[in-house]
């Protein structure tokens, strides 16, 4: 009966109603569904609502235009609870990977929006007056003149304009850095319009550092073109000027012009102003809200206007509106909500897992006062520093090195890069009105990965030449899997920097690179490039762990081929670990494995922690990619000539077990 009431309140169609009920009954027979039954039924309804349905024109449409937000409101379920239950429902119902990816993207969008909204409020208060200073509205008749907009209305309108734009750029919606810069573009536009409003002094914060110098004088005259405060906002709130201006010029302004062309925004389309004027504001608000509602229903996405609602705490789990809460006051409910949201963010950062290989206690803790946005922008600024002055082509020195090989690999390298660029752009292509944005962003990311690829390739070759002298490296530089793995690793770093948590293992799948080979290039990469920031090294470490713990042991892994080629033998721990790391009894027999968590952590600590553990200075590219010796399991790897005993070669501790 409660389910029938839920469906009636949602105006649910008969097909989805029946399908969801049957699915729920099937799950209930096979599993124990703990908690509120209506929450599980909400998961079943969402799945049924997102399936393709026939249309009048004999085609199909994705979804039945029932809002996810309404489903959750009517079932009295928070969004965080929904994500937790939806993951279990997907496993129980064995839903296809495409649906799971949609849910993961939805959750990432939510996490990004929650972080962005926490930044939006203080930035808005820096530019505009405090909303509680708004004068109370007087009741007026329909025929009376429209009143100027208030700060609260501008706050809500600016957020809706931002989330509408964010939703129309799929590659931005779950990208924290670009979403943040898109928000700065929205604030820049609204500020420029507020300056030209007749009630600008009632809207703008008189202490904002970006105001025109003569703003407070009686002779102040409005400029015909609104000023750009992107640079000022970036300096005040930790943005990257180059990235923000790029998004404004190439994506934000063309998008806003389309809104003017479609009459969704009313004003002067020549300079994108006038929509805050009393005669235009009301119509613009209605049109933008209606367009956003249509997008949410068609895409099945979260209605991100709920961040503006009074019940946002219960509906999402986000923090109480700091615009409505006096500074410095935190109720018990606010503290609990803050704790719940932090738990969700910690869970979404799946990098923080504990395994014997992590050695995380040897990594310095990050500053507790940094924010996700500041971490992301810092990582991006480090990347820009690494790539400064480079081009997406070999340097003169690298070209000379390649030409000096007995077989010049330059042309094959160029052809491979071109082919991988085409594959990557096609694999990330999206559909719709703004599909060119996806292509442009993918191409930009790949070009930067090219710069990093040639930079690291040159460093790797230089290191090998120092190690091997004048030995010809043609055999190594002709190996397709090495170059593909190295370029894919560069692309993963670029993608992760712009859009955590990156694209692994997708990046290996689209280029058909076995993770066994991708694993081998990670240490080579970190040894060759010392400019990587802490977050990137942690990300590469996590990829190593994933491969070592499970991915390398899958049925289709080439590791099994290598084992068969070696007469089904694998190295024992005694053959790859030095004697000093064994625990021996008085009888000189091994009593404890050197690969216990305690031993691994000791090895990591002595090798300098995570960064050095990943990049043992004695690991050779030649060793990794040359043909195996006659008895590869008994090779003494990681030779350290400095500590070699007389008459033999010492063995450096490997950062992880060699497989």
TrEMBL record:
Positions of region (Disordered): 604-659
Domain Retinoblastoma-associated protein A-box: 371-563
GO MF terms, alphabetically ordered: RNA polymerase II transcription regulatory region sequence-specific DNA binding
One GO-annotated biological process of the protein: chromatin organization
InterPro entries noted in UniProt: Cyclin-like_sf, RB_A, RB_fam, RB_N
Localization per record: Nucleus
CDD domains: CYCLIN_SF
Gene3D superfamilies attached to this UniProt entry: 1.10.472.140, Cyclin-like (1.10.472.10)
Superkingdom of origin organism: Eukaryota
One CC-aspect GO term: nucleus
Retinoblastoma-associated protein N-terminal domain location: 51-193
Keywords tagged on the record: Cell cycle, Chromatin regulator, DNA-binding, Glycoprotein, Nucleus, Phosphoprotein, Repressor, Transcription, Transcription regulation
Record PANTHER family: RETINOBLASTOMA-ASSOCIATED PROTEIN RB -RELATED, RETINOBLASTOMA-LIKE PROTEIN 2
Family: Belongs to the retinoblastoma protein (RB) family.
Biological function: Key regulator of entry into cell division. Directly involved in heterochromatin formation by maintaining overall chromatin structure and, in particular, that of constitutive heterochromatin by stabilizing histone methylation. Recruits and targets histone methyltransferases KMT5B and KMT5C, leading to epigenetic transcriptional repression. Controls histone H4 'Lys-20' trimethylation. Probably acts as a transcription repressor by recruiting chromatin-modifying enzymes to promoters. Potent inhibitor of E2F-mediated trans-activation, associates preferentially with E2F5. Binds to cyclins A and E.
Name this polypeptide is given: Retinoblastoma-like protein 2
Organism: Mystacornis crossleyi
């Amino acid at each position: 009966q409660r389910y029938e009431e839920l469906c009636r309140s949602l105006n649910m169609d008969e097909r989805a109603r029946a399908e969801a009920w049957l699915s729920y009954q099937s799950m209930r027979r096979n599993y124990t569904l703990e908690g509120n039954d209506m929450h599980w039924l909400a998961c079943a309804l969402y799945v049924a609502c997102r399936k393709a349905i026939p249309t009048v024109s004999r085609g199909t449409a994705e979804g039945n235009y029932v809002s996810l937000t309404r489903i959750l409101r009517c079932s009295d379920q928070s969004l965080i609870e929904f994500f937790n239950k939806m993951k279990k429902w997907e496993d129980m119902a064995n839903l296809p990977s495409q649906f799971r990816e949609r849910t993961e993207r939805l959750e990432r969008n939510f996490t990004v929006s929650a972080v962005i909204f926490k930044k939006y409020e203080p930035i808005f208060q820096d530019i505009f007056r405090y909303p509680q200073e708004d004068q109370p509205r007087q009741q007026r008749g329909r025929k009376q003149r429209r009143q100027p907009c208030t700060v609260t209305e501008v706050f809500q309108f600016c957020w809706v304009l931002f989330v509408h734009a964010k939703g129309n750029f799929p590659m931005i919606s779950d990208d924290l850095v670009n979403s943040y810069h898109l928000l700065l573009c929205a604030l820049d536009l609204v500020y420029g319009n507020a300056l030209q409003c007749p009630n600008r002094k009632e809207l703008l914060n008189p202490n904002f550092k970006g105001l025109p110098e003569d703003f407070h004088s009686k002779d102040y005259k409005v400029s015909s073109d609104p000023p750009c405060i992107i640079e000022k906002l970036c300096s005040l709130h930790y943005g990257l000027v180059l990235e923000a201006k790029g998004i404004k010029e190439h994506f934000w302004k063309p998008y806003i012009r389309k809104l003017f062309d479609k009459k969704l925004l009313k004003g002067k389309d020549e300079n994108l102003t006038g929509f805050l004027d009393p005669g235009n504001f009301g119509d613009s608000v209605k049109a933008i809200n209606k367009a956003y509602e249509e997008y949410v229903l068609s895409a099945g996405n979260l209605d991100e206007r709920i961040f503006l609602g009074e019940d946002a705490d219960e509906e999402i789990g986000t923090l109480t509106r700091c615009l409505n809460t006096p500074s410095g006051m935190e109720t018990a409910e606010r503290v609990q909500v803050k704790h719940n949201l932090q738990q969700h963010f910690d869970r979404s950062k799946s990098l923080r897992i504990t395994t014997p290989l992590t050695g995380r206690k040897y990594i310095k803790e990050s500053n507790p006062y940094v924010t996700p946005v500041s971490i992301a922008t810092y990582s991006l600024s480090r990347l820009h520093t690494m790539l400064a002055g480079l081009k997406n082509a070999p340097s003169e020195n690298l070209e000379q090195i390649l030409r000096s090989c007995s077989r010049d690999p330059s042309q094959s390298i160029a052809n491979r890069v071109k082919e991988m660029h085409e594959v990557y752009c096609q694999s990330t292509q999206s559909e719709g009105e703004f599909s060119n944005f996806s292509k442009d962003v993918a191409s930009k990311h790949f070009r930067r990965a090219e710069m990093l690829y040639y930079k690291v390739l040159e460093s790797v070759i230089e290191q090998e030449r120092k190690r091997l002298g004048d030995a010809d490296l043609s055999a190594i530089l002709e190996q397709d899997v090495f170059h593909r793995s190295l370029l894919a690793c560069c692309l993963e770093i670029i993608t992760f920097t712009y859009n955590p948590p990156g694209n692994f293992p997708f990046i290996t799948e689209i280029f058909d690179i076995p993770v066994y080979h991708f694993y081998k290039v990670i240490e080579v990469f970190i040894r060759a490039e010392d400019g990587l920031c802490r977050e990137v090294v942690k990300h590469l470490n996590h990829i190593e762990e994933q491969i070592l713990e499970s991915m390398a042991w899958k049925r289709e892994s080439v590791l099994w081929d290598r084992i068969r080629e070696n007469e089904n033998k694998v190295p024992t721990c005694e053959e790859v670990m030095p004697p000093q790391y064994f625990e021996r009894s008085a009888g000189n027999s091994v009593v404890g494995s050197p690969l216990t968590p305690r031993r691994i952590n000791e090895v990591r600590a002595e090798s300098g922690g995570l960064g050095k553990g990943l990049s043992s200075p004695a690991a050779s590219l030649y060793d990794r990619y040359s043909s195996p010796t006659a008895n590869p399991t008994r090779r003494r790897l990681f030779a350290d000539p400095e500590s070699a005993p007389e008459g033999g070669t010492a063995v450096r501790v490997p950062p992880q077990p060699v497989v």
